[in-house]
Write a structure and sequence with these properties.
Elements: E1 2-7, H1 12-25, E2 30-38, H2 47-72, E3 77-84, H3 87-95, E4 102-107, H4 120-128, E5 133-137, E6 147-152, H5 160-173, E7 176-183, H6 189-193, E8 203-208, H7 213-223, E9 229-234, H8 238-244, E10 259-264
Parallel strand pairs: 1-2, 1-4, 2-3, 4-5, 6-7, 6-9, 7-8, 9-10
Antiparallel strand pairs: 5-10
Amino acid sequence: MIRILVPVDFSTTSSNALQYAIQLFGMKALEITLLHAFSSNPTIMSMKNIDRVILKDSKQSMERLLKKFQKGFPNVNFKTKILSDHAVSCITSLGNSGEYNYIIMGTKGASGLKEVFLGSVAGGVISKTSAPVLVVPETHLFHDLDEIVLALGDTILSGEKVIQPLRELAQLQKSRIKVLHISESDTDTIEQSLEAIKDLNPSIEYAFGTGDTNQDLHDYIRENDSKLICLIRGHKGFFNRLFKESVTLKQTFESSVPLLILHDLN
């Protein structure tokens, strides 16, 4: 059984991510835990009363959401958690527990400077968790993944375990794997990175970067009909360049397609 953690705030953005998660795994045995985390900053005197009101409202909203999706997807095993905690720390703690195969969460697109890149919560989760994270833009609808793009720089993957979630999705969706190698110079290190997925017969597309990694990837997404981009978060390399060039993790880059973030921190 595949177990997924889906943080929800009862917005259309998180509902869209939940629906995407269900459609992505289709008929696979699926257990989804809906997590709502809330925190308040009241005075000590009113803390208990405010938390009580928020908790009651959260339970009612969760019941409505659960009823809607249980009716639409009766074969999915839904669980719920409502916790009084900061969202990032709560999500990452559960994600790092090893109980979930994926964290799937929605994110708002850029709107001026208010909500850009992955958003403060999704960006914080990605930087602190070891679990695979799939972020879904608020207006993105599920499409069959005929192709998944694995964007790599010059970093060599440490082993097959890192890439396993990508392998699972590719096999489930019968997806082709295209490796997008963005580099500022010609290098053959990418060939070594592909050992872990060579049985999937990945194709390779080379792109010489402009020095602005965010813009290079953004341009590729805009010019190609990509349905899912996979990035590897490591101690150094492409992913770190991507975010180092951003002012913060939540700024500069806006993805119009879902991003699967895997972690190679060994």
